[in-house]
């Protein structure tokens, strides 16, 4: 059970003053000793049960009263911890040191608070009984019923409407400060101090570019679409920056193709994070690296004949400078195995050795 603090009400300490008067002739001396009792320990005896409880002198009044027999007394207030059974109807006497009070007194609550309802309704539940211990904020009773429920719903709607009104007001207030929607660089500014702005009818106030990377859109032929995957590297060149090759990455390939004259292309998005001197709007060329082979043996793609064959010149076939064919009968048709290619050159995986010569069809014309 929660411990309550109650104070022994005003006690007339007649014996206290009488004993002090034997040692001090002046009244001022009596007053000084009485005041010194504050804070001292006291022994409180409950009337009826004669149970004793410890207490502390909380205060001593400064005014003297005339008690029974003409003795001077003062009011003393003692505070004790309620073990749980004491009420305001109980009384007690007290002793401070060797000084006893002149009579008994009733207990008073350390703090009294009257609880009243702040709303109207039917009491549907009571959470405490007389004698129950409670803490600040504990529920004592619950109001309910149809009227209360309807009132609660109305108040809930009112609170929500107020919240929405507040949000609209805050949004409207924020619109008076125009903020950047993204992080980047202001490329274009179309306002200055003193201009009047009329909502979106005023048009673009500024243009912001996110230059943390550049983006390139290129069309992929339907014939090459199956070779393109996200994450592949892309070599990018620009006529405005000759001699430099920039590296991008395939970010996305759309399956929403565009068909023109029976030929379909698909847009691919290329991202460049390290774009050097490139600027938005520049014309560039891009080659997607679908496969990369180091130290590959390759020949011009035009040298490959039908059936994956090439023409290899034998001794005496070519002119001394190797620029023309002197004897077409001294050529050997050799089958080769092809690897990947870039349209200009093709990889040879077998059938030729490094240093072998091959003929491009345009060379097979003989001397002019």
Please, could you describe this protein's structure?
The protein has 368 residues and is mainly beta. It has four domains: 4-109, Elongation Factor Tu (Ef-tu), domain 3 (Beta Barrel), CATH 2.40.30; 154-211, no CATH class; 214-288, Efflux pump adaptor protein, beta barrel domain (Elongation Factor Tu (Ef-tu), domain 3, Beta Barrel); 298-363, conserved putative lor/sdh protein from methanococcus maripaludis s2 fold. It has three helices and 24 strands. The strands form seven sheets. The chain has a six-stranded antiparallel barrel. Strands 14, 15, 16, 17, 18 and 19 form a six-stranded antiparallel sheet that branches. Strands 20-24-23 form a three-stranded antiparallel sheet, with no helix packed on it. A hairpin with a 2-residue loop joins strand 7 (91-96) and strand 8. Helix 1 crosses helix 2 (27-35). It is elongated, with a radius of gyration of 52 Å. It starts with a strand and ends in an 18-residue tail after the last strand. Mean pLDDT is 81; it is low at 1-35 and 363-368.
């Amino acid at each position: 059970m929660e411990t309550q603090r109650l104070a022994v009400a005003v006690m007339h300490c007649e014996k206290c003053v009488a004993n002090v008067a034997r040692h001090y002739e002046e009244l001022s001396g009596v007053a000084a000793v009485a005041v010194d009792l504050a804070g001292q320990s006291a022994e409180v005896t409950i009337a009826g049960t004669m149970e004793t409880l410890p207490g502390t002198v909380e205060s001593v009044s400064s005014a003297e009263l005339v008690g029974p027999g003409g003795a001077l007394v003062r009011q003393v207030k003692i505070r004790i911890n309620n073990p749980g059974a004491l009420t305001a109807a109980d009384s007690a006497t007290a002793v401070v040191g060797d000084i006893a009070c002149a009579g008994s007194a009733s207990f008073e609550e350390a703090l009294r608070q009257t609880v009243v309802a702040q709303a109207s309704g039917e009491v549907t539940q009571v959470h405490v009984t007389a004698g129950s211990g409670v803490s600040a904020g504990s529920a004592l009773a619950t109001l309910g019923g149809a009227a209360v429920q309807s009132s609660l719903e109305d108040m809930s709607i009112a609170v929500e409407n107020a919240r929405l009104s507040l949000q609209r007001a805050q949004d409207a207030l924020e619109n008076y400060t125009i903020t950047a929607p993204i992080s980047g660089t202001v490329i274009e500014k179309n306002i200055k101090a003193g201009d009047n702005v009329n909502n979106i009818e005023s048009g673009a106030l500024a243009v912001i570019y996110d230059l943390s990377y550049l983006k390139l859109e290129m069309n992929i032929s339907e014939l090459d679409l199956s070779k393109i995957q996200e994450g592949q590297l892309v070599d990018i060149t620009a006529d405005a920056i000759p001699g430099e090759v920039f590296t991008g990455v395939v970010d996305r390939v759309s399956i929403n193709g565009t068909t023109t004259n029976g030929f379909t292309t698909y847009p691919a998005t290329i991202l460049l994070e390290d774009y050097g001197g490139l600027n938005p709007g520049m014309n560039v060329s891009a080659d997607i690296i679908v496969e990369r082979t180091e130290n590959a043996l390759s020949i011009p793609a035009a040298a490959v004949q039908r059936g994956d064959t090439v023409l290899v010149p034998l001794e005496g076939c070519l002119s001394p400078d190797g620029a023309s064919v002197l004897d077409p009968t001294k050529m050997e048709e050799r089958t080769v195995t092809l690897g990947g290619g870039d349209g200009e050159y093709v990889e040879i995986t077998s059938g030729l050795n490094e240093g072998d010569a091959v003929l491009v069809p345009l060379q097979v014309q003989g001397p002019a």
